[in-house]
Write a structure and sequence with these properties.
By secondary structure, this protein is mostly helical. It has a domain of 172 residues: Ferritin, core subunit, four-helix bundle (Ferritin, Up-down Bundle), CATH 1.20.1260.10. The protein has six helices and no strands. The protein is elongated and about 50 Å long.
């Protein structure tokens, strides 16, 4: 299948992260992770995994779906690892939010694909697996930094470019609408990831919390609650905690 020219839009340009961290130059670790991510994109586009199986989607739409499927799987699997291996609450809580949000995105893309007898990729592509393997060899603050950089910032920048392309150039209007629906969420993720990376690099993320603090406050600029989550209910007659009761 011929690759559409628009697919090159998700390749990372050689930009720095100065806007997020006060103009400090990139270090070699960051350069290595950027090269790994760039290789992942090119590996994906050159491989047979870029084909969505059995369906009537146009070549371009099929490629968009495959890219979105791989990207979502990468975010989910990397964040599942981070939720367990992150060395502080900032990283672990950010990872949990990524799992919830990207699982929701994946579910809607799966529903779209299933209605058209298509199948999304069930795993990250080869290049993304290489990044997961690299993360698997890290621990502590080194792990936190690379997760925030490679998965939080860079992968979301790639996803934003992909969804912007999809929202404009996809043949199917419903696919364009789906991309537009989730673009704001991806942009929000990228912003919070930049905040997280700054806290990891400054050492603020390693400072202990006050006893009894809310773990949800570990995310810089806390993300909004998942709208799909059911409301919290209390048994009838049970007073709300912290509410004064009239004396008898």
């Amino acid at each position: 299948m011929a690759l559409a020219p628009t697919t090159t839009a998700i390749v990372f340009p050689g930009r720095t992260m100065n806007g997020l961290r006060g103009g400090r130059p990139q270090n070699s670790r960051r350069d290595v992770m950027r090269r790994l991510l760039t290789v992942a994109v090119w590996w994906f586009m050159a491989s047979g995994s870029a084909i969505v199986h059995a369906g009537e989607a146009s070549g371009t739409d099929g490629l968009y779906l495959a890219q979105a499927g791989h990207a979502g799987r990468f975010e989910i699997e990397a964040s599942q690892m981070a939720a367990q291996r992150g060395s502080n609450d900032y990283v672990r809580e950010f990872a949990k939010r990524m799992i919830a949000d990207h699982t929701r995105i994946e579910a809607e893309f799966k529903a779209y694909a299933s209605a058209r007898k298509l199948a999304l990729p069930a795993e990250p592509d080869g290049g993304q697996k290489a990044i997961l393997a690299s993360l698997g060899g890290k621990t502590g603050q080194s792990y936190d930094r690379e997760y925030a950089q490679a998965v939080g910032v860079e992968a979301h920048r790639s996803a934003i470019r992909l969804f912007e392309e999809m929202s404009t150039h996809a043949t199917d209007g419903q696919l364009r609408d789906l991309a537009r629906k989730f673009l704001p969420m991806l942009k929000e993720h990228e912003k919070h990831a930049g905040d997280l990376l700054s806290k990891v690099e400054s050492g603020e993320a390693q400072r202990p919390r006050q006893e009894g603090g809310n773990p949800g406050r570990g995310i810089p600029h806390p993300l909004p609650p998942d709208r799909a989550a059911p409301p919290v209910t209390r048994p009838t007659g049970e007073p709300e905690r912290g509410t004064a009761q009239p004396s008898r």
